[in-house]
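We store sequence, tokenised fold; for instance:
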Amino acid sequence: MAGLLWGLSALFASPLPACRRPLAPVIESRLGTPDLAPAHWGVVIQDLASGETLYQRNGDQLFTPASSLKLLVASAALRRLGADFRWQTPVYLRGAPPLLEELILDAQGDPTLTTAQLGDLAQTLRQRGVTAIGTLTLTDAAPPQRRHPESWEWGDLAYGYAPAVNQAILNGNQGTLTLTPETLGQPLKLEVSDPLALGTVSLSNQTRVAPEPRPLELTGVWGTSQWILTGSLPPEAEPARLTFAVPDPGAYFLAALARELNRRGIRVGEERLVQDFSPPSRPGFTLTSPPLRDIVARINQDSDNLYAEALGRLLQRRALPLGPGAADLGLKDYSGLSRQNLLSPRFLTNLLREMAQTPAASVFRDSLALMGERGTLRRRLLNTPVAGKFWGKTGALTGTVSLAGYWEIQPRRTLAVAILVNNSRLGAGDLRRAIDELLLEILDQCQG
């Protein structure tokens, strides 16, 4: 009900103009500066209540949205599944303690499962008298060739922000490398958060402790199971951390489950990874995810690519549409990591307006990053009038930056805003600063 009330408050807001002065002169002047003009800019600013377009520039042209695309899967999931939806991962048992003939964990694509939950499952089994399991079976229905969207770039795939997307997901299909400088001229000391996560990958540590730092980079060698780690840190530097994508997530999940069982005194015989099976009966246990409201917040505030992809694939498996107009977009993934996605700024503002009129409106808005306070916007426009008033989703790829969300420009007066920039020579930090400065100039026009 709270979400519906928020939506209705927007619909019945004051009829006074949202901005006292025209926005076009100040926006056109800003985007016409020598550093910004060469890029392709798309801007749509609409009054949330009336739908009046206060300003638009290339509003119906197509842009690569980067992670602002996540608004689409987050809003669709809230509408189709509900904010209280939870993934359910069944665990089936054949036989009885102390010797189970088989334990079957039927993975359902839950992106929130962790080693700690597997440890709790193992501990519960041990407390119920289980001391051995003849066959440990894990199902992973996603075939290896579909673990990554085809349009993701090869250079991204070793990193934790571009993990494989399968059914048996553990620890976000990511691990962490910690690199510590010790002796000048020698490789950085390398520690792996969980050695099982690397699987059969051979990691060549070609880093160095050197006076001049160089970016730490992880590169996969095409056609092999070798990764090369390069870069340098000065001797006085603090340890650096780099997340990597688990190369074989199903095998990692199975090995980690067997390890947790063994650690609690449960001997495991055969280990099997299969794509499907016939459930023997009702589950003996069920692993349950947090509610969807929390998962959507992780997607929108932290811009978690795996969570977005897992949620999008769940909607696809259940034949649940993403929403009006989405079928015509030709989307290549659900997270926005693909450089081949295309949508218009007006599509995003229309989506924001539609969500503001649904029962999920408050949950959706509260899932977003908040300017100057939380998520990917927490360090932007601190101590300005925009802080705490702009709920949004950010995005960034090389030459591409985006921002879309709700802006409470005045009491009971909210704008739907989408700003997308493509094909820029500037770095992401410079483009973000340009957008933030533009917001302050717009605010001056509306409140001055």
User: Anything to note?
Assistant: The radius of gyration is 24 Å. Residues 428-447 form the longest helix (20 residues). The chain has three domains: 2-84+291-447, 88-144+249-288, 162-245.
